[in-house]
Amino acid sequence: MLLETARPATRRAHHDLTAAQAERIRRIRRTGAYLLLIVATAVFVLPFLWMVTTSLKSDAENLAFPPQFLPDSFHFENYAKGWSGNLPFNSFLLNSVLITALSMVGNLISCVLPAYAFARLRARASGVMFSLMLATMMIPREITLVPKYIMFAQLGWVDSYLPLVVPEFFGVALYIFLLRQFFTTIPQEVIDAARIDGASELRILWRIMLPLSKPAIASIMLFSFVGNWNQYLESVIYLRTTEKFTIPLGLAMFSGQYATQYNQMMAVALITLMPVLILFFIAQKTFIRGVTLTGIAGR
């Protein structure tokens, strides 16, 4: 009788001990995850903070050894001197805005149409064509730099914005893939109902697919903006006249023959970084939702 009474108590004690151990393990894992996130955040944030503090240092503090993280006094005049100095950053800004805006329009037009075709239209060998398009994503763009330069040089497009803008009107495989994945999440019944009502494919795309695909479109527009706003390699290849330079090329011109004014360079870099940060924080929820849905959905 005593043994039968003691056994349930022993099992309860063992169960309580196991539950306590499991809770302790969960707390350790949670603490480790938080520590890992803190370290990762510091790795990404510290360079940005160093950039901010450098933009507020004096010339002597920039050259000090060992380096100091915080300046003795804040020199906000570095922003005005850097922007309105010897380099025409107002022209660089307008050039970057023009190239970025045209490229974003080109990406939107050239990627929406094939994405809708791959997602909703059934054509012979469409799967093969989609696979070939995805295969182009594995080709490094450095391989195509020389052939593209030869072609644009023969067309007489060197030292103009055409080599930077025109290719954007011929589609980007990554953006087409993301849009196609999102389009497949829209119920087919909605599209069939529109077809029964006599709507054309372009009308279905314009009135149904695009309004329902705002998160995905916002994602590719943000990708397009950041990519073209920070474009340096192709800009330095095709642009020769200083008045046509973009902001990344203007920042590269801060490197002087005898000395580099890092404080003014960092100040201008922060100014040009603001549009990217503002755009991301405004469209953060839409961007994350679009990336999530295009990543986990699709057939």
Automatic annotation (TrEMBL):
| CC terms in the record's Gene Ontology section | plasma membrane
Report the locations given in the UniProt record.
Cell membrane
Q: Where are the transmembrane segments?
A: 33-52, 92-116, 123-140, 160-183, 204-226, 262-283
List, for all copies, the residue spans of the domain called ABC transmembrane type-1. Answer: 93-283
Q: CDD domains in the record, alphabetically?
A: TM_PBP2
One Gene Ontology term of the biological-process aspect is: transmembrane transport
Q: Which SUPFAM superfamilies match?
A: MetI-like
The organism's superkingdom is given as: Bacteria
Bilayer topology reads: Multi-pass membrane protein
Q: Which Pfam families match?
A: BPD_transp_1
Task: Could you list this entry's UniProt keywords, alphabetically sorted.
Answer: Cell membrane, Membrane, Sugar transport, Transmembrane, Transmembrane helix, Transport
- Asked if the Swiss-Prot or TrEMBL record annotates the protein with the keyword Glycoprotein, the reply is no
InterPro entries membership? MetI-like, MetI-like_sf
- Its recorded name reads Multiple sugar transport system permease protein
Upper lineage is: Bacteria, Bacillati, Actinomycetota, Actinomycetes, Streptosporangiales
